[in-house]
What does this fold into?
Amino acid sequence: MKRLSWLHAWLMLLPALAMLMAFTHIPALTTIWHSLFYPARGSEPEEFAGLDNYRMMLDDDVFWQALSNNLWYALVTVPASMVLALAMALWVNGKIRGRGALRLAYFTPTMLPMIAVANIWLFFYSPEIGLFNKVLGWFGVAGINWLGDTDWALPSLMLMTIWKEAGFFMIFYLAALQALDRDIYDAAALEGASRWYRFRRLTLPLLMPTTLFVLVNAVLNAFKLVDHLFILTKGGPNNASNLLLYYIYENAFSFFDANYAATLTVVLLAMLILLALLQFGVLERRIHYR
Amino acid sequence: MARFTHALSTSAAWLLGLLWILPLLYAFWAATHPAEYATRFDLFAPLTGEHFVTAWNQAPFMRYMLNTVIITGLILTFQLILCTLAGYALARMPFRGRGLVFALVLLQLMVMPEILIVENYRTLSMIDLIDTHIGVGLPYMASAFGIFLLRQTFKTVPQELEDAARLEGCSRLGVLWKVYVPLAKPTYLAYGLVSISHHWNNFLWPLVVTNTESSRPLTVGMAIFGAPESGVDWPVICAGTLIAIGPLLAIFLLFQRRFVQSFMYAGLK
Amino acid sequence: MLDKGKLHKGKRLLAIAVTSLAATAAQAQTELTMYYPVSVGGPLTQVVDGMIEQFEQQNPDIDVNAIYAGNYNDARMKALAALKSGEPAQLSVMFSIDVHELKDLDAIVSFDDVVETDEERQWLDSFYPALMENGKVDGTTWGIPFQRSTIVMYYNKDMFREVGLDPEHPPKNWDELAAMGQKLVKKDADGNVERWGAMIPSTGYPYWMFGALAKQNGADLMNSAGNETYFNKPEMVEALQYWKDLGSKYNVMPEGTIEWGTLRQNFLEGKTAMMWHSTGNLTAVKNAADFDFGVAFLPAHKNFGSPTGGGNFYLFKDATPDERRAALKLVRFMTSPEQAALWSKDTGYMGVSPAAYETDILKQYVSEFPPAAVARDQLEYATAELSTHQSGRVRKLLDDAIQSVLNGQAEPQEALDSAQNQAKRILSRY
It folds into this structure.
């Protein structure tokens, strides 16, 4: 019986493992393989390219721009959406007027498909007829060409991303807050601890696991959430808002160069695996002092 | 002073709430008023339902909706089965190489299917599953997140419960089904909702693998429908959006309380 | 005794037998799958569906299955994917500029190889030459024009009147465009612009608009073999400088890029007095404008000029001779003068042959709605749209160069030099 146990375990793991292998591990490896070839021409077989695609990438200004855009994008959207998510969760967890309505409001982005709602944001951002410039106009401020100005295009995308993400992460914080033990707070209040002190010394540390979970997700989303680019900017103007995954899509499915797309994918993979190692390191430490 | 900060905080909350719901409000506005009010706001603008009719006639929404439901359902079903089995094995069955397997699973948390669209597209065209529901679903059916979550939940189930059931002659799968699954209900609900809201709104991968309306989900249909080749028609797009999110909105309104609660119990925090 | 269920089963079997018999009787049935670059259910699909229905009635032995695949890029991707996986696809409407790449992929067959009779050969010559430029490579015809457009200038006549300009005399050349544009700009008390003089869209298809400016300055963007580009010729640099100047020097246009998708809305809401846009927008503007508007040639510099655009019919290689003949029949039907005329009237795209404009339908339409003829008349000065090998990549190089200049990140000369050098490197393989 005990001897069969390992067999049972493998049998139960098999379906999931097979799928993971087929659509994550193996493709990750074949990506590397395909990045070593020139794109096929017509019906001829692919020709071995060595590291030529990587050389091409190092020379490719658009790649560097997309990479740096993506890093900025992550650097801004991750903390901003997390802070907002926490603030929202604190508000709707406390006694506030119209709590139900607020919860619904904060949660709307999660329900709206990015691709559909991007068209609505396109209206907000539209320079002559859009909502944002109209509002600026009431205050006598000249309009901004949000999506058409190289300085504003990326921030505009970031804003929409923050909107999308904060509402989603709020749910996780809210669930965590509701599970917190009220007694500790009562005790702290009795001892005369200020609100700020209680937040800093009690709430924040207790929310640490959630924060880590949300952080991981936020970082990942910063690299995989490109839906809105399809409608808002297509990476423009002049790549000012291009992101890695979108550039990969462009190469594979607009330029039909799956091999160069694979090369770019390798970079993205490497970055994500590096991040994974980093985060597991952090997780490890957390587990230790628990 | 405290009162003042309180008021300030409340108004900030409301301002943010307003900002957050603005796109939805705008969608309602544009969809229910004549086109000339799409960019102008007038309390006395007449109401109209014409955009819903236009949108409905311009795209096979029923078909898209059906595809989305099938795809989402297919993915969720497989996810629940595969992740339950794998989660249990990783939580409660000691075997050699468990740590390695768990690490391999966790890798997918980072290397999401979205990143591998190019290779996965190759794979699917090799096995001739482009433009099928199952093809859209395949890369997502084993979910590292689901496995991880269920493993954590199963670990909290007291071992004694399992031992007792085993003594009564329950098989392993029987124990899993009768003891573990019922106890993990909140996790299933929370995970299910996350999965549904993710796949209902998923775009990039379905865009790549679907060709025709026989498999295209709502999001891809919406993108093509709103593609500004000749110009954006906001009222109709907004009406289409509302049609598309209707069911999801209803689910959320119905389950709002359960939703947060299940997140809480599931330890998704 | 037979029970009811069995009886039903028997009947059903019989029915199946009968229908399959009938099918074998109509043996000659040829099935065609056509990919089409519009979104499902859009207004265009109804027009195309109607045409196909009529074709099937006239040709009961041919069955046409149209797949509406979205935009041009989607349609191409889907059609090629279908071919690769062995699914049937005999013809498609795809971007006219994809011709070199489709040839490189060995996916299409030239019409010269499919036509058989002299009459059919003559048919190949029945279209407007300007519309054939993108379809012909080295004298061989690979694409037949169908869903074709060109760029025209839409202008708001009411605004012309308001500032004392003659509404029947839109700007004829670059200088007039700048001068009249300046008159048409309106500012509020704070000095913020309420209305612009003109807008040329610079997202989506900047290379297309630039092709017009280049042609007006007497230069083409590439050769017809699609393996050489001329992005940094002096004419190009001058054209791009002028485009930039419209925003930064003459101030008749906003600076930065102008969104293609929302431009029509801008025009309809009176935020700009003039816009350059596809003729494909004509019907939509006509239906929605609550002011008097006109359509004119794009202004000239050395001469008038505009690229053509839009989709051509292609025949895929992977088809039986019967299927190819049937596909040719369908293409001929859809581009016949009557159908082309109806198509043009219903959609605003161009009638593809002179004969189409000789039909009663278009004659009447043009007399009722003269703007419809502007695009046709401008064809005389039209040129091919940018089309090369690896066109996606090459196009992006030019798009990026244009956007960087309009955003003040680079000077026209350096931006175009860099685009040209990179394009040259890409095209050196062909």
Observations:
- Chain C touches chain A at residues 73, 77, 101, 104-106, 190, 192, 196, 202-204, 254-259, 261-262, 265-266, 269, 271-272, 390, 392-393, 396, 399-401, 403-404, 406-407, 409 (CB under 8 Å).
- The longest strand of chain C covers residues 144-156.
- Residues 1-26 of chain C have pLDDT under 50 and may be disordered.
- Chain C is about 50% helix and 15% strand.
